[in-house]
Design goal:
Elements: H1 3-37, E1 50-51, E2 57-59, E3 66-79, E4 82-89, E5 97-101, E6 105-112, E7 121-123, E8 144-150, E9 156-161, H2 168-174, E10 178-183, H3 185-189, E11 200-208, E12 210-211, E13 214-215, H4 222-227, E14 233-236, E15 239-240, E16 242-257, E17 263-268, E18 274-279, E19 282-290, E20 293-295, E21 300-306, E22 313-320, E23 335-349, E24 372-379, E25 396-397, E26 409-412, E27 416-423, E28 428-432, E29 438-442, E30 445-446, E31 457-460, E32 465-470, E33 481-485, H5 488-492, E34 496-502
Parallel strand pairs: 1-16, 2-5, 3-6, 5-10, 11-16, 16-23, 24-27, 26-34
Antiparallel strand pairs: 3-4, 6-8, 7-9, 9-10, 11-14, 12-13, 14-15, 16-21, 17-20, 17-22, 18-19, 18-21, 22-23, 24-25, 27-32, 28-31, 28-33, 29-30, 29-32, 33-34
The protein binds CU-O-CU linkage (C2O) and copper (II) ion (CU) (2 copies).
């Protein structure tokens, strides 16, 4: 070995040592940050359980088909004795659950008491554009907006929330959201749990940031505007770390992901099997046995769980990262409890799980050749102006950022429509107003026959998804329908388009 070679060897070793130290340091810093931020299980930071808040049920028939919802300022205590400024419908946070019936017409009076314009959209309601509550249907402060909603769709779980151009994310974040439960002859004749708040539970899942027990107001940073705002603490119906007492037997959970941007994977402790019975637009034909279910913003699923053995179970949520490829390989995602179902052995739910729930007429058995085809791409891979991407320049659909003066698509009422939808960069929950659609292919893959329920929101990736639908209601130039990404930050930044439906 020459002197030179030895020196070279030493230099190499030094290099390796420096790199190893650097790597160790990085790992240590990551673990430290991770533990400090307590990302693993934030519920541990809030050991105190709270009784699940169940929004009041307003039954449209008992209310003589006249319901008033006051959009108002509130103060909600997410933690005992600590109030946060919030907004709600009639309430401090969120709004009552409204039960509607197929073939009824219900009048709803929206009173705007928040001192700024907003709108109230019925997400999942199949009504004309004029009644849809889109960005055109502004309710000015101090005024009342009255809609008479003719319900013609089948039983299902829909919801209401503001849809003002550029303000949707903020208004929903403050607390403006609530549920519509639609019942029809089929749902009323099935032996399903239907005792609201007892064995039929609404679960509105959101994520928020708390500092000293106070909910932090909506202030997204530039990163949040790109990825969508994802926060640290799960709330369900405005409750942190909830429990709810339920009877033994079957319990039905109506899950709504009303988060601004967060996707969750839901599962029960002990990996307990549960049954999915309904998607956004109605019941599946038969229940599907599952151990987990992933839900994006805007999506609803009804699930049933059998608690006959009397043991408590917790519904858990894994917080999924904005881009699944972003997951830190050396850590698992944070997991928090949604609700602990505490079984009361004395009370029994005598409801059951029927094996036939619905009959769904398949649109794909019709002549696809005559379907009107459209392709939609949710754009965010580059800035329109060539500069670095930001919320101001990166979001559009088919190259066109949402512009209230532009009608992007024109649909003829009654036509069979086949839309092929793709999206850039990350998964986007794509939502269409005024319709329930059927999935032909999802992210490039054929959808299992039994899993083809009626939907209005679907997670889109770079691989194409094909949805089939028929619009049966009208939406004029003045009150068009929207299609958009249901990550509210993306929607507000322009990942939205408008279409009319005319004869
Ligand atoms: Cu839930 Cu157009 O929205
Ligand atoms: Cu909607
Ligand atoms: Cu998006």
């Amino acid at each position: 070995m020459t002197k030179g070679m030895r020196r070279k060897g030493l230099v190499e070793m030094k290099k390796i040592a420096i790199w190893a130290t650097l790597l160790l340091f990085l790992v240590a810093v990551s673990i430290g940050t991770y533990l400090l931020l307590g990302l693993r299980d934030v519920t541990k930071a809030y050991p105190q359980e709270a009784a699940l808040f169940v929004p009041e049920l307003i039954d449209s028939r008992e209310a003589d088909q006249k319901i008033e919802l006051v959009i108002r300022e509130g103060r909600h205590a997410f933690f005992e004795g600590i109030e946060s400024p919030t907004r709600g419908f009639n309430y401090d946070f969120l709004g009552p659950t409204i039960r509607l019936y197929t073939d009824d017409t219900t009048q709803i009076r929206f009173v705007n008491d928040i001192g700024e314009p907003t709108t109230v959209h019925g997400h999942g309601l199949l009504v004309d554009g004029e009644l849809d509550g889109g960005p055109q249907s502004e309710i000015l402060p101090g005024t009342t907006h009255v809609v008479s909603l003719p319900i013609v769709q089948e039983a299902g779980t829909s919801w209401y929330h503001p849809h003002l151009m550029g303000k949707t994310a903020d208004h929903v974040h403050e607390g403006l959201a609530g549920l519509y439960l639609i019942e029809d002859q089929n749902s009323l004749s099935l032996p399903l749990p239907r005792d609201y708040g007892v064995n039929d539970l609404p679960l509105i899942v959101q994520d928020r940031t708390f500092v000293d027990g106070k909910m932090q107001p909506y202030k997204p940073g530039s990163e949040d505007l790109l990825d969508g705002l994802r926060e640290e603490t799960l709330i369900v119906n405005g409750t942190v770390n909830a429990y709810h007492e339920v009877p033994t037997g079957w319990v039905r959970l109506r899950l709504l992901n009303a988060s601004n941007a967060r996707f969750y994977r839901f599962f029960f402790t002990e990996e307990e099997t549960f049954y999915k019975i309904a998607t956004e637009g109605g019941f599946l034909e038969r229940p599907i046995a599952l151990n987990e279910i992933t839900m994006a913003p805007g999506e609803r699923n009804e699930i049933m769980i059998d608690l006959s053995d009397g043991d408590d179970l917790s519904l858990m949520a894994e917080f999924l990262p904005a881009d699944p490829d972003d997951a830190l390989w050396f850590f698992s995602n944070p997991v928090q409890s949604v609700v602990r179902l505490q079984v009361d052995p004395v009370r029994r739910s005598d409801a059951g799980l029927p094996d036939k729930l619905n009959t769904i007429v398949r649109l794909d058995e019709e002549d696809l050749k005559t379907a009107v085809r459209r392709t939609i791409n949710l754009d965010m891979d580059e800035a329109d102006d060539g500069g670095p991407i930001s919320a101001d320049n990166a979001f559009s659909i088919n190259g066109e950022a949402m512009d209230m003066a532009i009608i992007n698509e024109r649909v003829k009422r009654g036509d069979l429509e086949l839309w092929t939808v793709t999206g850039d960069m990350m998964p986007h929950p794509f939502h269409v107003h005024g319709v329930s659609f059927q999935i032909l292919t999802h992210n490039g893959e054929e959808t299992a026959m039994e899993d083809r329920g009626w939907k209005d929101t679907l997670v889109i990736s770079e691989e194409p998804s094909q949805i089939l639908m028929r619009f049966n209601h009208v939406a004029s130039q003045d009150f068009p329908y929207m299609y958009h990404c249901h990550i509210f930050e993306h929607e507000d930044a322009g990942m939205m388009g408008q279409f009319t439906v005319t004869d």
